[in-house]
Amino acid sequence: MWSTAGFAQETMTEVTVPAPEVVNDTQEQSSESLEQPSETMSDIGSTDVVLQELIQLLDQETELATKSKMNVDFVPGMMSVLHGKDMLARGVENVYQALGLLPGIEISRTNDGQPQILVRGIGKTFFSSKVKFLLNNTPFNATLGAATTLLILPIEQVERIEVIRGPGSAIYGEYASVGVINIITRKGDSALFVRANDLKKQTYGGMYSRQLPEKELSFNIGVSQVRADGGDVDAGPDILFGTPQAGISNAPGPINNKEDHKTLLLDVDYKDYIFSWQYIEQSSGDYFGLANALPSDQQRIVRSITMQSFELSKKWQINDDWRAKGTVGLLDFQLDSELYELFPAGFIVPPANIYPDGVLGGPNYEDDRYYIGGDFSYSGMVNHEWLLGFDLAYIEQGETYVNRNYNPDDLTPITTPPSVVRLDGGENWIKEGLSRTVMGLFVHDQYTVNEKLKFTFGLRFDHYDDVGNDVMPRLAGVYQLADKQTLKFQYARSFRPPTFLELYTQNNLIVDGNPDLESESIDTIEAAYVFNDGATVFRSTAFYFIVRDLIAIDPALNSYTNQGKINTAGLELELQQQVTRKIKVDATLTALNTEDDQSGEDVPGIANLAGNIAFLLQPWPDYIFGIQLKALGDRKREAGDSRPDLDGYSVLDVTLNMFNLGLRNLNLRTGIKNLFDNDIVYPAPLVSFPPGTPQLRPAYQNDYPQSGREIFLQLDYTF
Asked: Which residues are CB-neighbours of 114 under 8 A, at least 6 positions away?
C-alpha cells in the first residue's frame, strides 16, 4: 500500500533501524514528495510533510513471496502491504480490522467470537485457518486448528502487514493454501499509547527501542493490553427458538463478548543473529455460545488462547554467490477454558435428563512445535537466482483434558459429587498422545530471460507422518510491458493438511473429528496488470481456482468431512492515488463467482462483491482527516436454509488526527466508526439440533450481529 515512514514526524537527522525484510527506497529519500517540490523538509517544516510521507508511493522490496528481495510489483503472484501508521490515520484498531480493507479478504467471526479471515471466498471452517500467519517472519499457526492469536494485535504495534493473496504453499508449506500474512512489528522507536471508546473498551501499550550501532546491537520490546467489558451487542432468537425448550433460552439478550488480550514482543539483534520472544494471549467470552445457545448474562472470560514463540536465527554471507539463513525455534500453544454454558439451566435431554445448572463443559489443550529450517541462496549462475531450503518440525501434544457435567456417551448428567468432573483418556474431548512430524524440501529458480521478462519455477515436497505427502509446484512470470506497466501470471498448487481438531475431536456435542480426512488441494491460475507512475498505482488481478477435498463441517453427520469441489473465479482491483499534495485516496474492489459442485449453488456465507474507499486529507500542517467507506454485498444461504439471503452492509468511518499537541510527537486521534450505526451481521449457519441428530435448523434466526457505532479517543507519544 502506502509508505508511512516518518508519520511520527522524524527529522532528517534522526536514525531508525529498518525492518530486516523490506527496503523502502522512498523512506531513504523522504525529503522529496511525489510532485518533486522545490522545498526541502526543513524548508517546509516537519509538520507540513506528514501527509507527504503517507502518500509516497512505494518502490519497496519484500522477501515474503520468494525469500529473496524483489520489488513488490515484480514478485510472482499478487501482494499488498499495509502500513501501521497509515492504518492509524484511518482509525483502524487492530490487525483483524486492517486485513478487512484489502481486496479479496473478508472478515467474519464464529459463533464463539473467534475472528476469521476469508481469502477469495475460502476459509469459513470452525476454528480452522487456510492462511499461513507469520509474526516477524516466525510461523504463528497452531497445529490444533491452524488458528492464530495475531489478529487481535493492536495496530499501534505494527510497522506493516505483508499479504500474499493466493497460494503460498510452494514456499511456506502447511496452512499457506490461500494466502500468507506476515506481520512486522514496530522497531527502532519508542512510544506509549492509550485508546478508549464508548463501548467500554480500552487499549494500553508501549514500545521501547535501543540501538548500539558501534556494537552492532539493537533491542526492541513492545507490550499491550486490550480490555472490553462486553455486553454491547444483543442477540436474537438462538438455537432453542421454536423448540419445546424455548422457554429456558436466554435469548434475546446480550452476548458474552468480554475481552482481555495481552502481548509481549521482544527481539535482540546482534550482528547476524536475531533472537525473539513473542507472546500473545487472546482471552474472551463465548459470545453467542459454543453450541449456539445464548449464555447467561455474566460477561466473563471463558477461554484463553496463548501462543508464544522463541526463535533464534542467523544469516551468513558465505561468498559472493552463496548466502544462507538458519532458524531454530519453539512455538507453544495453550487453550485454557473455564466452563462453557453449552445449554442453559433447565435444559432437558430426552427422555428425562434435566440439567438444573445447564450443560457445562470446558476443553483444555496444549502442544509444542519444535522446528528448524534453512534457506540457501545461490546467484553464481548467469541470469539465475536459486533458492533451496528445508523445514523440519515436530509437534507434540501436552496436557489435555475436559471438565464436564455430562457423560459424553449418552448425554446423561453426572449426578455423583462433584457434578463437574475432569475427564481424560477415552472420555477426553480430543484423542490423547498426538504428535506430528513434518519434513519439507523446496527449490526455486528465478530465471531472468532479459531485462523485461523473468520466470520463477518452484517445487516443494512435504511429508507428514500422519497424513501423507504433498507436492506443490509453482510457475510464474513477470513481464515489464513498459517503464510504468507490468504484467504477471502464475500457476500454483497448494495443499492444506487436516488439523488435529479436524482429525481427532471426540465426545463432542458440536462436531466430531474424522481420522480419514484427506488434505485439501487448490489449483490456482492468476494474471495481473500493474501500473505505477509514482503518483498512481493501479493493480488488477484476475484469478481462477479449484478446491478439491474441501474440509468442512457436515451438520447432518455432526463431523468434519471432505466435501467435493469448489470453483471460484474473481477479480481484484486496487487504486492508490495522490490527488494533490494534501489528498490521498485508496480504493479496492473485489468480485467473486463461486460454485459448490455438490449443490450447484454459490458458496454460502460469502459476499460476491465488496469494496473500500478511503481519503486522507491534510487541510492544515498538524491535522489529518480520514474518511473511509466499506461496503459488502449480500451473502447466500446454504442449501436447505429457507431464510432469505443475508443483506450486505456498508460502514462509514471518520477520523481526526492532531499532531504535536502542545508537545512534539504527542498526537491525539479521535473518530467515529460506523457513523450511521448500520447493522453489521455475520451469517449463522444451519446446525444439528437436538445435538447429534440429522435435524438442521438455523443456529441463530437473525444471524450474528456485531458491535454498532463506536466513538473512540486515542493518545500516543513517540520519543
From this structure: 127, 147
Beta strands per DSSP E along 257-351: 259-270, 273-284, 303-317, 322-337, 340-343, 347-349
Q: Which residues contact 417 (CB under 8 A, 6 or more apart)?
A: none
Confidence of residue 63 (pLDDT cuts 50, 70, 90): low
- At 497, give phi and psi (nearest 5°): -75, 150
Question: Would residue 579 count as lying in a domain?
Answer: yes
* Residue 417 phi, psi (nearest 5): -60, 145
E strand or H helix at 225? strand 217-228
| DSSP string over 340-391 | EEEE-TTEEETTTEEETT-EEEEEEEEEEEEEEEEEEEE--STTEEEEEEEE
17 lies in some domain:
no
How would you classify the pairing of strands 132-135 and 179-185? parallel
Q: Are strands 401-404 and 359-378 parallel, antiparallel or unpaired?
A: antiparallel
Tracing cell 438455523 back to the chain, one arrives at: 698
Q: Are 514 and 129 in contact (CB under 8 A)?
A: no
Please count the helices (runs of H) and the strands (runs of E) in the chain.
Answer: 7, 44
CA atoms of 148 and 144, how far apart (whole Å): 10
Which pLDDT score, from 0 to 100, does residue 99 have? 97
Buried b (16+ CB within 10 A) or exposed e, 458-487: bbbebebebbeebebebbbbbebeeeeebe
Total domain count, the chain? 1
Beta strands in 430-497 (DSSP E): 435-448, 453-464, 468-482, 485-496
Is 384 domain-assigned?
yes
State the distance between the two ends of the chain, measured CA to CA, in whole angstroms: 26
Tell me, what's the pLDDT at 123? Answer: 66
Distance CA 395, CA 469 (A): 17
Q: Which tens digits make up the pLDDT trace of 448-472?
A: 999 999 999 999 999 999 999 999 9
The span from the CA of 508 to the CA of 277, in Å, is: 35
- The verdict on residue 638 lying in a domain is yes
- For 299: left if phi > 0, alpha if psi spans -120 to 50, otherwise beta; the answer is left
Q: What is the DSSP letter of 161?
A: E
- Per residue in 103-138, pLDDT tens? 999 999 999 999 999 999 886 544 457 899 999 999
Q: Which domain holds residue 143?
A: 25-718
pTM: 0.89
Closest CA to 558 of 694, 392, 388: 694
The three grid cell numbers given for residue 234, joined into one nine-digit string: 444483543
Which grid cell sits at 523?
A: 489449483
Q: How many C-beta atoms lie closer than 10 Å to residue 218's C-beta?
A: 18
Per-residue pLDDT averaged across 23-47, rounded? 31
**Between β-strands 201-212 and 191-197, what pairing exists: parallel, antiparallel or unpaired?**
antiparallel
Give the type of residue at 596. D
Q: 351 exposed, middle or buried (CB, 10 Å; 0-12, 13-18, 19+)?
A: exposed
Residue range 200-228, pLDDT digits in tens: 999 999 999 999 999 999 999 999 999 99
Residue found under cell 464464529: 110
- Strand-pairing partners, residue 673, are 710
Closest CA relative to residue 251, chosen from 370, 341, 333, 124 = 341
Whole-number pLDDT of residue 61: 57
Whole-angstrom Cα Rg for the chain: 25
Euclidean distance between CA atoms 265 and 67, whole angstroms: 23
> Would you list the DSSP string of 532-577?
E-SSEEEEEEEEEEEEES-EEEETTTTEEEE--EEEEEEEEEEEEE
CATH number at residue 436: 2.40.170.20
Cβ(553)–Cβ(126) below 8 Å: yes
- Amino acid (1-letter code) at residue 568: T
Distances (CA, A) of 367 to 329, 397, 432: 14, 4, 11
